[in-house]
Amino acid sequence: MTERLISSCRRQGRPLSDCHNSLIAYELDSTSAELGRNAVLNVLSSMNVSCDVAESLVGSWIRTGDYLFEAFQLAPANFVIGNPPYVRLEDIPVEVAGAYRNSYPTMTGRADLYIAFYEAGLSQLREGGVCAFICADRWMLNQYGAKLRSMVTASFAVETIVEMHQANAFDDDVSAYPAITIIRKADQRDALVASAKPTAEAHGGRLLAGMVNAMRSGQGTSSAIPDLNCALVHTWFQDADPWPCSSPARLALLRRLEDDFEPLESPSNAVKVGIGVATGLDDLFITKDQSLVESDRLLPLAMARDTLSGHMKWSGHYLVDPWLADGLADLDAYPRLGKYFEQHAELVKRRNTAQKNPNGWYRTIDRVNHSLTTRPKLYIPDIKNQFNPVLDRGETYPHHNLYYVYSDLWDLEVLGGILLSAVGQLFIEAYGVRMRGGYLRFQAQYLRRIRVPAPGSISAANKEELVQAFRERDRKHATDIALRLYGISRRELETTLGN
Ligand SMILES: C[S@@+](CC[C@H](N)C(=O)[O-])C[C@H]1O[C@@H](n2cnc3c(N)ncnc32)[C@H](O)[C@@H]1O
């Protein structure tokens, strides 16, 4: 930046003093700030700028101070560039953390300090201005990044994201998962998403940046860029939706499918996605004893393990069900149920939900919706590496580790076949968060966003094959049909899964 400014002044025949306000840099730590000043002084000296002019420029450019406290007073900027600190708010003095939170509403939950830097940097941009950070990229997917994502999708354009988990981004070993993000104050157009291989560094930033820019402007192709997996994505996410950027090819395919097909839980699909009942005390609320309480207070309960074989095999568990259609059952009307809860009242009342509802202390956390029991539905266990949708013919009620999907429009076995396919898996791999040990979480919020072809658009022959693949748990067969329905080539799917 220094080199460009000085060259520009000289080219235009302007005095260097004109650029006193052209750069502003902040560093909280005085030693680091001094390192920065010396680095810039060296550049100025190598460009034959006199000592006193150089000192005066550097003095006004590089400030020792807190950017987050002062960003509001700074002039709008064309470029904001940074390597913001990754610091958990818990590690910052309480008063300072509180002040940051007050000033930066995107800092929610367990937000890291870098979230505030993004908000400050973006807020400082002029129309058309651009903010480029190298920073941890967890905010693109996680809960604490939601408000920042909303801010970006509402008023900015994601231009380029280069994920650098594998690349050697820093001299020091830092255990952050960094990405370069380039975000412009402009309307969203194509976004270039790239992932750097460990060997990318060898090509140098200038070469890579040039090629990335060429590809953005339609003059290059992704295969021409060495050691970066790249994809141009034609539309970006909306609101606070997560940005699954780790595999560019997958992201590009995902965006295409999101644009071309309706989400599972949309009016046109008449699909409802939900989660089973949480009790707060399974040891007491779940039983196999058929004589424990009145028989109509025992609700056949489907457990996640009942679905393991791919077919629903009810293990004989029941929910001790305190709910009637219009609210909690009166314990006087159900003496055995009453006696059972009274016997265990101490434990039952210790639950959070009981303390919040002293009169309904024997409630389960979630209310039971009895009409769900008799509805045919698909069960999807929460934690499994592969999509494992299983049909319940309307015989059980789901426990909390099961999601359910029902529809008045879809043949559930056809839908089950689609979800079973590699295309169904693709969505969950992209949206879902992998937990420690590599398990994928299937959460309702992700299930709802899976895109499916309109049920009316699937031919009878394809429907029949999907049903067959679903019944036989034949993922390969289901995938063959799904690829046809979604218009995905096998090669496209393989590149995507390969990533
Ligand atoms: C990840 S380091 C980047 C260091 C250096 N700029 C670089 O790119 O190598 C983050 C820097 O931010 C500084 N910092 C932390 N909080 C700050 C704040 N509120 N205002 C300005 N600088 C801050 C830290 O002292 C640290 O040097």
Instruction: Please indicate the count of domains.
Output: 3
- The overall strand count is 20
Rg is: 29 Å
> What fraction of residues sit in β-strands?
15-25%
Helix content: 25-40%
Instruction: Name the average pLDDT.
Output: 92
Number of helices: 20
The hetero molecules present are: S-adenosylmethionine
Q: Structural class given helices, strands, pairing?
A: alpha+beta
Terminal Cα span: 36 Å
> Unreliable stretches, pLDDT < 50, 5 or more residues?
none
Largest sheet: 6 strands, mixed
Question: How are the strands of the biggest sheet laid out side by side?
Answer: 3-4-6-5-7-8
Estimate the global geometry from the Cα principal axes: globular
Describe the structure.
The chain is an alpha+beta fold and 499 residues long. It is 37% helix and 18% strand. The chain contains 20 helices and 20 strands. The chain has helices at residues 2-12, 30-46, 51-61, 67-70, 94-103, 113-123, 146-155, 205-216, 248-260, 282-285, 335-343, 345-350, 352-356, 371-374, 412-420, 422-431, 444-449, 460-471, 475-486, 490-498; strands at 25-27, 62-64, 77-82, 125-136, 157-163, 178-184, 191-196, 228-233, 262-263, 271-275, 286-287, 298-302, 318-320, 323-324, 327-328, 377-381, 390-392, 397-398, 402-407, 451-452. The protein has a 6-stranded mixed beta sheet with strand order 3-4-6-5-7-8, with helices on both faces. A 4-stranded antiparallel beta sheet has the order 10-19-16-17. The protein binds S-adenosylmethionine (SAM).
